[in-house]
Amino acid sequence: MRPVKSIYSLLACLVFLACSKDTQQRNPFLPEIGFRFDINLNLPLYSPLLTQGNPVFLDNAAVGIRGVFVMNTGFELYRAFEASCPNHAPNSCSTLELDGQVARCSCEDYEYSLFTGQMLNRPDTEERLYDLLEYRANRSGNIVTIQN
Questions:
Q1: To the nearest 10°, the Cα dihedral for 88, 94, 95, 98?
Q2: Beta-bridge partners for 93
Q3: CA-to-CA distance for 65 and 27, rounded, in angstroms?
Q4: Which tens digit of pLDDT belongs to each residue from 73-115?
Q5: Helix, strand, coil: what percent of the chain each, to 5?
Q6: pLDDT tens digits along 20-71
Q7: Angstrom distance (rounded) from CA 68 to CA 64
Q8: Which among 51, 70, 114, 142 is least surrounded, fewest beta carbons within 10 Å?
Q9: Rounded to whole angstroms, what are the CA distances from 27 to 30, 107, 131?
């Protein structure tokens, strides 16, 4: 009976140690919203997404806060990022502008990579700055589903 008790104790310890203490802080400037949007790659509007490195801006009120940038990053993998600058509350200048594979904020001239979502010109400051807010993007056949 003792070995069974030891096994249960060992399993309980493993479960306890495997618990994540994720301290990642949610971006306070961008509200959490839920949505789902399907992109049909057969449509001419979305044909740039068939080629690696060609982003598309989804300027749709039902997608994201200020829209979403979607890009084929290679090997049929897609990334989708919020089009509102993550470093201040949404306002008149906070919608990012597409410039090749970079998204720019006209408020502070921050630049973000659409391959990684990271800020490219991070200033040397003690202020907490955020990278782009990423949404889930999955491809199934000729449909890319963007959702949060």
A1: -90
A2: none
A3: 13
A4: 999 899 999 999 999 999 989 999 999 999 999 999 999 999 9
A5: 15, 30, 55
A6: 555 557 899 999 999 999 999 999 999 999 999 999 999 988 899 999 999 9
A7: 6
A8: 51
A9: 6, 18, 9
pLDDT at 135 over 60: yes
**What beta strand segments (E) does 2-107 contain?**
36-40, 56-58, 68-74, 77-82, 97-99, 102-104
Q: pTM here?
A: 0.82
CA pair distance 96, 62, nearest whole angstrom: 17
End-to-end CA distance of the chain: 48
Beta strands at 56-58 and 68-74: parallel, antiparallel or unpaired: antiparallel
Structure confidence at residue 61 (pLDDT): 87
